[in-house]
């Protein structure tokens, strides 16, 4: 009888252990399947094998092994993605930003820009430009190297066509700006731009409105394809047409660039303004 009791106890233990394995497997199986996403799961269905009750533990071991391998695959993919994260260079201080701007401003000819305190000067110049005023000493662009030219005859004085060519390089450079790249850089520089704008007494975040007004000044300039007559006034020339003479200084400057250059600049600024209004 003592031998039978011992055998019975062994059988009971085996049954308990087997039930425990089945319950644990049944509890962890759904958890593991839910834990790993569909992206990391194998597309092949798990095949349940018909085995004897003595080997109930085998299906659990065979189904969890692929999941462990898939977990490693997911970790490897995450590691590869982490390595591909692009490094973003931190912004410099405003007073040290010239080199950063020039290195990241993708334009065809950087020689037309004044390379000193570019952000501050641009902010001041654009602020005045938005009001129709020209303040040359803050211009971010260098002046043309050739002089303003006129043509005279017995009846009138006109702007010489050669005079418009002084601005060809400016129009070509602006027209070749990639709008997406410009907007990326503008957005990146926004903290420095806002800082410069606050320094001259404006509230934070209001520069977008100002640059939109400045662009509108250019877009509102009429394109004149006939000879523009002038009249002499002591040492300067004025537009003979009073309607043109009454235009803001900003628009009179744009007229001196010539109709083709003005058209080219307007086309590009119209694209940029459209993107600015989305910010």
Note the topology.
Elements: H1 2-35, H2 57-83, H3 98-104, H4 118-129, E1 150-152, E2 157-159, H5 161-164, H6 168-175, H7 179-199, H8 207-219, E3 229-233, E4 236-239, H9 242-245, H10 249-255, H11 259-276
Antiparallel strand pairs: 1-2, 2-3, 3-4
Helix pairs in contact: 1-2, 4-7, 4-8, 6-11, 8-11
General description of the model:
With 279 residues, the chain is mostly helical. The protein has two domains: 2-83; 94-276, no CATH class. The protein is 56% helix and 5% strand. It is built from eleven helices and four strands, in the order ααααββααααββααα. It has a four-stranded antiparallel sheet with strand order 1-2-3-4. Strand 1 (150-152) and strand 2 form a beta hairpin. Helix 1 runs parallel beside helix 2 and helix 6 packs parallel to helix 11. The longest helix has 34 residues, at 2-35. It is elongated. The termini are far apart.
């Amino acid at each position: 009888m003592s031998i039978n009791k011992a055998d019975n106890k062994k059988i009971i233990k085996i049954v308990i252990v087997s039930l425990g394995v089945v319950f644990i497997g049944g509890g962890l199986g759904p958890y593991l399947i839910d834990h790993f996403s569909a992206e990391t799961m194998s597309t092949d269905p798990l095949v349940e094998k018909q085995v004897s009750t003595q080997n109930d533990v085998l299906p659990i071991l065979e189904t969890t092994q692929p999941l462990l391998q898939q977990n490693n695959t997911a970790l490897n993919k995450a590691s590869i993605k982490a390595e591909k994260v692009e490094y973003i260079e931190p912004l410099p201080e405003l007073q040290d930003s010239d080199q950063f701007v020039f290195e990241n401003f993708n334009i065809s000819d950087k020689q037309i820009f004044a390379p000193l305190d570019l952000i501050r000067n641009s902010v001041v110049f654009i602020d005045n430009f938005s009001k129709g005023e020209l303040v040359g000493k803050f211009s971010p662009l260098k002046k043309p190297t050739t002089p303003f030219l006129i043509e005279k005859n017995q009846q009138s004085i006109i702007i010489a066509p050669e005079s418009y060519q002084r601005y060809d390089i400016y129009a070509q450079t602006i027209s070749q700006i990639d709008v997406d790249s410009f907007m990326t850089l503008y957005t990146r520089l926004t903290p420095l731009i806002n800082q410069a704008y606050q320094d001259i007494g404006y509230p934070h975040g209001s520069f977008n409105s100002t640059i939109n007004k400045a662009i509108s000044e250019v877009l509102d300039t009429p394109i004149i394809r006939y000879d523009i007559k002038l009249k002499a006034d002591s040492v300067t020339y004025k537009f003979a047409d009073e309607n043109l003479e009454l235009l803001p200084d900003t628009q009179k400057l744009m007229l001196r660039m010539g109709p083709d250059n003005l058209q080219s600049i307007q086309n590009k600024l119209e694209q940029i303004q459209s993107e600015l209004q989305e910010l």
